[in-house]
From TrEMBL:
WYL domain segment(s): 167-229
InterPro entries reported in the protein's UniProt record: CBASS_pafABC_assoc_protein (IPR051534), PafC-like (IPR028349), PafC_HTH (IPR043839), WCX_dom (IPR057727), WYL_dom (IPR026881)
PafC HTH domain location: 24-146
Organism classification: Bacteria, Bacillati, Actinomycetota, Actinomycetes, Micrococcales
Protein name: WYL domain-containing protein
PROSITE patterns tied to this protein: WYL
Pfam families according to UniProt: HTH_PafC (PF19187), WCX (PF25583), WYL (PF13280)
Superkingdom classification of source: Bacteria
Source species: Cryobacterium ruanii
Amino acid sequence: MRRRTPPLREAKTKPDTQPRVAGDQLTLLLSLVPYLIDQGRVTVSEVAVHFGLSPERVRGLVNLIALSGIPGETRQYLHGDLFDILWDEFETNDRIVLTHQVAIDDSPRFSAREAAALIAGLQYLSALPNNADTDAIASLMAKLTRGASAPPTQVAVAQRDADATREVVQTALTTGMQVEFDYLNARGCQEHRLVDPLRIESVDSDWYLRGWCHLREAVRTFRLDRMSNPLVTAAPRSTHPADLLLPDTLFQASTDDIDVRLELATAALPLLSDYRPERSEPVGSGVRTRTTLRVAHTHALKRLVTGLAGIVTVLEPAEARQVVADWAAAGLAQYAAAEPMPGKD
């Protein structure tokens, strides 16, 4: 389509109150062009409302865009070196549609896979309590979808069972009410707890409630996926001393904790950093290290050993070794039971 010269419009009957400083004009153009590209097709009145400008000012900026570009090899502004719009739509329907972009298309774009990964991350963020009621994340996901070099793969972050529990706990935290629930502690015992919620935190994919436990009369940390039958009570949260502070660490040592001695490759020692190992000592040439962990119960070692199978060896106490050995034997027995009988398909 042949480029048209921007039409001359009648002089305005009243002065435009918007500033005409060159710096302001450039700032508006730098904001307006990406907006028009992102919208695809938008009316002058919509642009005016979005940027807080008069419609005449918007029309003037659009005419200026049509005279903007980058000079080609001849150092002259020829056809193809300037922005262009669909003039029939602009003149007849007061609608702006960019038909030619200069240099903008050369900017790097996310690949479809990169955009899909970012969208999945944003979906996870949208599930966080503090972000559940905002539209900014949804808008950003839509922009990533439109701006990718190819349509991103449709992804969805699976909802976990703890999500419903988190909503109940978040409601109690927001409204300042107590929350009660049945809790399966680290020793495998089921207890009923009444808690004044103080904070919700996440570590990796696990969510935790930190609050004042009326049963223990102290601050405790609860894993949300170990809660059942959560309920916001009709009782307001109790008043606590002004000097009640939550520790910086999520878990605190207890006098009931058990010291467990482990051995593992020295290079793998950072894998235990979340457990805050103590009294680490090199073995022999230093290729392996022995260290001590404090755990609430020997059954807590099951998850650790399973996640670091073949890397960690439990040395003592004997009870801890036996618990891990029984856990491994039970798992091996399930594989043996699944083996087909001789002579059977």
